[in-house]
Amino acid sequence: MKALLAFGILFLGASQAFSQQVYSVDYESQADVKVFVVDYESQADLLVYKVKYSSQAGDNDGKWFFVDYESQAKKSVYFVKYESQADLKIYFVDYESQAGWKNSSKKQLMY
């Protein structure tokens, strides 16, 4: 029974550690990743769906939960003004099923 409880705690901890909890910083120098929001889905590296609850955040699959404090985030992002400044181009989608990577070579940016 103790082993099962320990496994459960480790599993829950690991799932939280890899979820896409994101914090938007005020300055470029504070960011792990510089992000630009494109106008069209076809221009994006990643299609992002903003989830309502932390528990719904994905495992680097485009389902992002924006946290209130930087210490809660897996990644900090800065939204740049120009596409040429960005490490990652994203497009916000309306449905969870649309979320995901279009350019898998950029996937390491969000790990």
Walk me through what this model shows.
By secondary structure, the chain is α/β, with parallel strands linked by helices. It has one domain. 14% of the residues lie in helices and 27% in strands. It is built from one helix and seven strands; from the N terminus they run αβββββββ. Strands 1-4-3-6-2-5 form a six-stranded parallel barrel. It is globular. The protein starts with a helix and ends in a 10-residue tail after the last strand. The N terminus is likely disordered.
Overall pLDDT level:
87
Low-confidence stretches: 2-18
Q: What is the terminal separation in angstroms? A: 33 Å
Helical stretch count? Answer: 1
List keywords for this structure.
111 residues, six-stranded parallel beta barrel
Topology:
Blueprint: H1 2-17, E1 21-24, E2 33-37, E3 46-50, E4 63-66, E5 75-79, E6 88-92, E7 100-101
Parallel strand pairs: 1-4, 1-5, 2-5, 2-6, 3-4, 3-6
Antiparallel strand pairs: 3-7
Summarize the structure.
By secondary structure, this protein is an alpha/beta fold.
